[in-house]
């Protein structure tokens, strides 16, 4: 194996897609955009390439990396996002959704946005302590807050670590409002905390349902809850008095886009009271990962899918401009929005966000011994 200067831009998809890995969204640990070199395999005549390929496609195990976070509440700087703060108890996500816009964040950790993103999960084990310190500060002003914006706060490792639950315990103590977006049934565990807060107008939840097709879900979001299980979670949240909506995001043309109205209907029947949708986004390394996925699973549709995405993104694979990155532009983007509004109106689903209850906030007691600010990935 030799090393050569990096020649291929991150936005270029692989010419020959490799075999899928069972239970994982991506098939490779692709290099990230900050790497100065790339690896190129060279056949030495002893069959080493075949051996490497066999080893590479063994299902990789998930590794949890504990981190002591210096900060847990992130302020929103984007003018087209409707919340002010976000909390992400983890970095990376084992659900393995191939389209995840947060995959490129692993590049800042010198890890691959491909397999590393879904197999090397960073757990912010002191998240609750950091949150308590933040909320207790006289300088903190309560505003709208969303839990799990760049990672699913209820991904599988949460069952063992319980970081998200401890964060919610602090929010409950302080009477701080929050919303949560998830595609996991794990949120049901915390109904004892969430339901009483919902009764005070402090909580809303959104369950992400991208497809009703089990086969599509299995390759699109391999380790997330099955579609029927998500609808059951939505129903249980609604029955517990939690205002719950459905996120049909991302919408991928010719893949899950034909299901839009059926998903909204199923969600409304399960108890959803609101809905929103965002067209698929392909920032940085997500673009080649997604195009590789298309070639592996839908080769006959790949060109048509990408052509329609470009129609909604000003002729580009991705449009990062504020104001259009979450909506798209042009005829097809307008049509998607019209379909959502029409279906939502017919089903009685609201499409605007609920008002945030801030009047009940009380600063929690300061922790007796502040958590160490020193942390390490390895």
From TrEMBL:
Signal peptide: none annotated. Residues 79-316 form the Radical SAM core domain. Gene3D superfamilies: 3.80.30.30. Coiled coil: none annotated. PROSITE patterns: RADICAL_SAM (PS51918). InterPro entries: Elp3/MiaA/NifB-like_rSAM, MJ0683-like, rSAM, rSAM_sf. It comes from the Bacteria. Keywords: Iron, Iron-sulfur, Metal-binding. Transmembrane segments: none annotated. PANTHER family: SLR0285 PROTEIN. This is PA0069 family radical SAM protein. It comes from Pelomonas margarita. The lineage of its organism: Bacteria, Pseudomonadati, Pseudomonadota, Betaproteobacteria, Burkholderiales.
């Amino acid at each position: 194996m030799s090393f050569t200067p990096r020649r291929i831009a991150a936005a270029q998809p692989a010419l020959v897609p490799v075999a899928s890995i069972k239970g994982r969204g991506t098939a490779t640990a692709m290099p990230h955009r900050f790497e100065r070199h790339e690896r190129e395999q060279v056949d030495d005549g002893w069959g080493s390439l075949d051996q490497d390929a066999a080893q590479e496609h063994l299902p990789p195990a998930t590794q949890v990396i504990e981190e002591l976070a210096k900060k847990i509440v992130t302020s929103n700087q984007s003018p087209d996002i409707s919340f002010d703060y976000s909390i992400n108890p983890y970095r990376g996500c084992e659900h393995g959704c191939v389209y995840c816009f947060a995959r490129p964040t692993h590049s800042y950790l010198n890890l691959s946005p491909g397999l590393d993103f879904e197999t090397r999960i960073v757990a912010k084990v002191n998240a609750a302590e950091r949150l308590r310190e933040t909320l207790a500060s006289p300088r903190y002003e309560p505003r709208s807050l969303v839990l799990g914006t760049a990672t699913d706060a209820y991904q599988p490792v949460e069952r063992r670590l319980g970081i998200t639950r401890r964060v919610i315990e602090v929010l409950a103590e302080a009477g701080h409002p929050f919303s949560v977006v998830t595609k996991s049934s794990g949120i049901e565990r915390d109904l004892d905390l969430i339901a009483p807060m919902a009764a005070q107008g402090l909580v809303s939840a959104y369950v992400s349902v991208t497809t009703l097709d089990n086969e599509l879900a299995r390759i699109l979001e391999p380790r997330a809850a099955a579609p029927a299980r998500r609808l059951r979670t939505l129903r249980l949240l609604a029955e517990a008095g939690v205002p719950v909506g459905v996120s049909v995001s991302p919408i991928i043309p010719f893949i899950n886009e034909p299901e839009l109205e059926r998903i909204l209907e199923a969600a409304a029947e399960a108890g959803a009271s609101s809905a929103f949708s965002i067209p698929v986004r392909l920032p940085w390394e997500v673009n080649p990962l997604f195009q590789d996925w298309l070639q592996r699973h839908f080769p006959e549709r790949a060109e048509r899918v990408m052509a329609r995405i470009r129609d909604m993104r000003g002729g580009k694979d991705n449009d990062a401009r504020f104001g259009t990155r979450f909506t798209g532009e042009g005829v097809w983007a307008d049509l998607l929005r019209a379909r959502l509004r029409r279906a939502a109106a017919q089903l009685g689903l609201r499409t605007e966000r609920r008002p945030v209850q801030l009047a009940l906030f009380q600063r929690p007691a300061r922790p007796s011994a502040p958590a160490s600010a020193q942390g390490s990935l390895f």
